[in-house]
Structure formats: C-alpha cells, structure tokens
Amino acid sequence: MNMMLELSSDVLRWIILTSLYASLLILLIFAAQWLFRRQLAPRWKYLLWGLVALRLIPPCCPPADSVYST
C-alpha cells in the first residue's frame, strides 16, 4: 500500500512538472510570435508549436527512481 502511494505521488509530481514546463514553453512561443510577427514564416510557427506537441507526448512510463531506491 505504501509503495502504491509513493508511485502515485511520483506520477503526480511528474505530471505537474511536465505541464509546468510545457506552459513555460507556450509562453515563450507566444512571446517569440509577438516579437517576430512580421518576420516569422508560417512554417516556423508550425515548427515552434511542434515543440510543444513533442514536449507533451509522454514517454512509455514516467520516471519512478525513488520507488525503486527503497
């Protein structure tokens, strides 16, 4: 039971951190699009948003280093 709580805590922490990093990346992309609104080609805009999509794709499983260290 305790191991299950640790695992769920690690997964929740991983989800929160991943979401936070993706949110920061989104803010940076909005800033870049605002700064370079006339010089940024549509292709580059799609590539920038592709970075967000790649960041939000989860790996096969979240890291659970602390679960196996006990």
Report the portion of residues in β strands: under 5%
By DSSP (H or I, 4+ residues per run), the number of helices equals 3
**Basic shape:** elongated
User: Strand-and-helix sequence, N→C?
Assistant: HHH
Kindly report how far apart the N and C termini lie: 14 Å
- Radius of gyration from CA coordinates: 17 Å
Number of structural units classed as domains: 1
Low-confidence stretches: none
Average residue pLDDT: 81
Portion in helices: over 70%
Q: What assembly state would you assign to the polypeptide chains in this entry?
A: single chain
In total, the number of strands is 0
Structural class label: mainly alpha
Largest sheet: number of strands, sense, barrel closure: none
Keywords:
70 residues, mainly alpha, 76% helix
Could you characterize the architecture of this molecule?
The chain has one domain (2-58). It has helices spanning 2-35, 42-56, 65-68. The chain has 70 residues and is mostly helical. Helix content is 76%, strand content 0%. Helix 1 packs antiparallel against helix 2. The mean pLDDT is 81. The radius of gyration is 17 Å and the shape is elongated.
What's the arrangement of secondary structure elements?
Layout: H1 2-35, H2 42-56, H3 65-68
Task: Tell me briefly what this model is.
This protein has 70 residues and is mainly alpha-helical. The chain has helices at 2-35, 42-56, 65-68.
